[in-house]
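ok posting inputs for the zinc ion job
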Amino acid sequence: MFGRHKSVIVIGLLWIVAVFSGVITERFQDSQTTRLTFLSVGQGDCTVFQHQGATILVDVGPASEYSDAGARLVTPALKRLGVGRIDMVILTHPDADHVGGLVAISKRFGIGRLVMAHHFRSKPEVSELLAKARIADTDVIWSDGDQTVQVRAFHLRMLTPEWQPGEPDNDGSIVVQIGDGKASSILSGDASALEEQEVVEEMGKIHSQILKTGHHGSRHSSCESWVKAVAPEYAVISVGRNNRYGHPAPEVVDRLRKAHVRMLRTDQQGDIQFVVGKKGFELEK
Ligand SMILES: [Zn+2]
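and the output
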């Protein structure tokens, strides 16, 4: 499913390397620290990866007609993290709890490239979103198969499943693996157990220190074979306080507990940050 189309995104590589020759201002004095921050954005996802001056977001938080986490939470959080420009935004799939914050964020920050799964390209809501965020089609990488963006020592591997219109958007989610050989994390958007099992069957090696649990800890994700194959030290559950879906599901919490995985929840802990140390990703106290 993922092996059919395999490539390293060279444009991404050259372009991200170019970031490092930029002028580093006072605001970026701490930019050498590599951080992975799971922002507390309510019922939705937004993860920020910072490495040697480059900033990559995986999803951008939720927005509805009543509230916009992009303006209210993500923008101030990015300022606190010293972000002046976003080099790449990867949107796992086009549900509002993952892409809603894009318009507000694009008003405050320059965005270099956007990555979305090619199979969502023809969706009217995707064109509408890109138009509102003023992102040109030429700045979008329409991901397909197994692709990697190299950012210095780190790779961002993006696995885009095969997906047909009519199937749930969740199962078209891009699975993102971030790592440098020692530090490692895997993020699977809202992929269900079906997609998780396909990744396990096809990719094999997916062991990661940090698992961002799929679909906010829903009972349809984080299946036993996925948890076993990833064998994480930490599971990060990005979830809204008292959310109406009952996330995370008790059976998922139970499964992770039995696997001796340390669970961290954004509704209880707020923003959750890891920095790279001797043991790879280490939880920032
Ligand atoms: Zn979601």
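notes: The pocket of zinc ion is lined by residues 95, 97-98, 190, 215-216 (CB under 6 Å). The longest strand covers residues 110-117.
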